[in-house]
Amino acid sequence: MSHLETHLQLGELAAFQEVVRLWQERDARFQDLNFLRRRGGEDWLLRALDSHATQGLSPASLEERRRRFGSNRSARQPAPCSSG
Fold first, then answer.
1. How far, in Å, CA of 69 to CA of 66, rounded?
2. Cα 39 to the chain's mean position, in Å?
3. Count of structural domains, the chain
4. What is the 3-state secondary structure (H, E, C) of 21-40?
5. Is residue 50 part of a domain?
6. Which domain holds residue 42?
7. Residue 37 has pLDDT above 80, yes or no
8. Is 77 within the bounds of a domain?
9. 43 domain-assigned
């Protein structure tokens, strides 16, 4: 048992470990955000995606996007609803 574990009860240890995990994920997300900012932020991303902030995607580009990236539809069919 570690020194930390002896000072924390079981539930507290699990909560502490979760906080550490979330902090590590946060750090990774900020690295991505910092990368985006260095590249030029939202404007750079919109240009890279060939998109527009208010108008979205051009309908003329949809077929090319499907060809390059595939469909964004789920392969799974939704479960049937039960009525009753």
1. 5
2. 19
3. 1
4. HHHHHHHHHHHHHHHHHHHC
5. yes
6. 27-55
7. yes
8. no
9. yes
